[in-house]
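Below is a filled-in request sheet from our internal design queue. Each sheet records the structural input a requester submitted and the sequence that came back. We keep these sheets so that new team members can see what a complete request looks like end to end.

REQUESTER: design group, bay 2
PRIORITY: normal
MODE: inverse folding
CHAIN LENGTH: 309
BACKBONE (tokenized):
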């Protein structure tokens, strides 16, 4: 009898231990924004090969270890940035994202900091081995990742501009590395900057009361709702103008031409939803824009494959 009881308790302990370890693992992935990092790296590989890299064939690209090293450093830096951001935003996330915060609570904050330091140091070490210029590039990237979480995320307008700039920083690095400077690439960069800026401001409308309570000065909690709505709609209209410029003036073709043309109707829908100015319409707008960015990555991939075949 005692033997059966001990066996049951042991089995129960193993199950709880497995659940706890699994929760820690998931908590770390969420804390490090792992899934966001995966999407960014996918986008980076697609844009690097099909947009910035105009000369190398696929075989040369696969064996260009310098490029893979830079992207590896980018992965580690993004993971480290996600960790330090959740460290500073922990109290706010406790209110805004209670489920994720609960999962992350399985790991003590000090271990997140250890992971941040390890990831940052490995990234800088690999960057140093690639070249001193790459090392300097990632020192700047990591500094502003930390400075954004520490200070800039609480400052009006700067928080949005810095967040979007940090998101695009690795793409800028690849553009400089391949020296791919053209009107088409510039307009596509402006397009992506504007759509990400819209996403960030719309996201802030959903958390404006919490942001204000925790000392984050954002456009939605600083300006009146009408002014915030005007800013978002203006950005969407400018994004539409950039899309039209890309279609008419750069000779863009294939899937990307379809993408930017369809985008005009998507942005008109978003303008309509923003003018409704309900929490639900803002939430729908946010997800439409996020999905549209992902569709843009797929369109670039398909467009590139069509051109290479």
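RETURNED SEQUENCE:
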């Amino acid at each position: 009898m005692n033997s059966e009881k001990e066996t049951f308790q042991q089995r129960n302990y193993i199950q709880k231990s497995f659940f706890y370890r699994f929760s820690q693992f998931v908590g770390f992935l969420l804390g490090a924004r792992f899934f966001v990092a995966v999407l960014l790296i996918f986008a980076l590989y697609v844009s690097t090969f099909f947009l910035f890299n105009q000369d190398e064939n696929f075989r040369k690209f696969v064996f260009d270890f310098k490029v893979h090293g830079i992207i590896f450093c980018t992965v580690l830096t993004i993971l480290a940035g996600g960790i330090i951001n959740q460290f500073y935003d922990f109290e706010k996330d406790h209110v805004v994202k209670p489920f994720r915060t609960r999962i992350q609570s399985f790991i003590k904050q000090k271990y997140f900091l250890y992971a941040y330091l390890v990831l940052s140091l490995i990234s800088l070490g690999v960057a140093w081995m690639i070249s001193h210029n790459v090392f300097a590039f990632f020192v700047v990237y990591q500094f502003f990742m930390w400075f954004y979480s520490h200070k800039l995320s609480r400052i009006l307008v700067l928080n949005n501009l810095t967040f979007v700039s940090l998101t695009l920083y690795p793409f800028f690095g690849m553009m400089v590395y391949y020296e791919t400077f053209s009107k088409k690439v510039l307009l596509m960069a402006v397009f992506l900057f504007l759509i990400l800026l819209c996403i960030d401001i719309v996201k802030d409308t959903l958390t404006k009361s919490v942001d204000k309570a925790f000392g984050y000065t954002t456009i939605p909690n600083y300006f009146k709702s009408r002014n915030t709505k005007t800013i978002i709609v203006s950005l969407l209209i400018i994004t539409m103008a950039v899309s039209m410029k890309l279609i008419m003036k750069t000779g863009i073709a294939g899937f990307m031409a379809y993408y930017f043309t369809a985008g005009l109707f998507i942005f008109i829908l978003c303008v309509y939803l923003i003018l409704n100015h309900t929490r639900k319409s803002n939430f729908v707008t946010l997800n439409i824009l996020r999905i549209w960015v992902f569709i843009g990555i797929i369109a670039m991939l398909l467009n590139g494959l069509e051109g290479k075949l």
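SHEET NOTES:
- The chain has a mean pLDDT of 82.
- The chain is about 85% helix and 0% strand.
FILED BY: M.R.
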